[in-house]
Hints:
The protein has one domain: Aldolase class I (TIM Barrel, Alpha-Beta Barrel). The N and C termini lie close together (about 10 Å). It is α/β, with parallel strands linked by helices. Strand 2, helix 2 and strand 3 form a beta-alpha-beta unit. Helices cover about 45% and strands about 15% of the residues. It is globular. The strands form three sheets. Strands 1, 2, 3, 4, 5, 6, 9, 11 and 12 form a nine-stranded parallel β-sheet that branches. Helix 2 packs parallel to helix 4 and helix 10 packs antiparallel against helix 12. Bound molecules: zinc ion (ZN). Zinc ion (ZN) binds next to loops.
Amino acid sequence: MSGALSVVPAGVLSGVEALKLFEHARENKYAIPAVNITSSSVANAVLEAARDIKSPIILQVSNGGGAFLAGKGLANDKQQASVAGSVALAHHVRSVAPLYGIPVILHSDHCAKKLLPWFDGMLDADEAYYKINGVPLYSSHMLDLSEETDEENISTCVKYFQRMAKMGQWLEMEIGITGGEEDGVNNESASAESLMTKPEQVYKVHKALSAISPSFSIAAAFGNVHGVYKPGNVKLTPTILGEHQKYAREQDNSKNEKPLFLVFHGGSGSSKEEITTAVKNGVVKMNVDTDVQWAYLSGHRDYILSKKDYLMTQVGNPEGADKPNKKVFDPRVWVREGEKAIVERVKESCRDLLSENKL
Ligand SMILES: [Zn+2]
């Protein structure tokens, strides 16, 4: 295998380069972890993990993550904070990613119908950046109209994809619902049937979008649920992704064994076997949010509990009443402990998705 860096450069990729990277992943049977980013600290930790384990990586921002990046003290009634925070993250990642020496896809997560002003704001920023640099600010965005009818879902994707394709940008879309709750979107009461997609449904998307550009992926639901649940409470059926590939291949008379680029949402807490089956069936991107959130908290928690007696006053600890604690409560020390835990968790995802040593 020639490594990913033989087909794409290090740093943030354009949409055209993202296509080359996803093709590399599909050919070499691995998927790339996509981690939700809420701060520069989290972004840097994820980049560090990918560098250390020699994996390409996807950094993504959710609508709520964008607002958080801009600052929770800001109003967001017109999605202005979500737009500003998402743009700010992109500039941060663009600035530091080349130093890590790995290919990075910069992506935005679920955008439901009511959040389209956020999407429009990001595309405005992409187009402005494209005018100057010849590449969009973001490599890729996700539209999630899965709660609407398939007709409205697909026609909205077509409309936006026509605008994005002019910049060579990648589009991820969702069909079938991801259950559970994430970022304020609650699908906990969705019916079991709506969590599972049919081959005809997925092919309709493929047909409509491939007429515009090859740079898109489909998050086709196969029983996925956001968040972590007790094992056995979520019934994932990644084998149906193989049926989607087969149907699309037959319809198009394609020589490509896996013509669809598929995305795995709600992967936190799923078994290694489910992950392996999904990758085998053409999943090239898997979202990892909840497990990384948990890792970040764990790193902070363990540090604070172990240093408790040094963290109750600025001066004075078990070594003496006049001993200063500044070196213990400096945020660069305790935030770093959360980052170290993220590094380990993201490496685990790279191993699960077989993206380790793929540069
Ligand atoms: Zn998702």
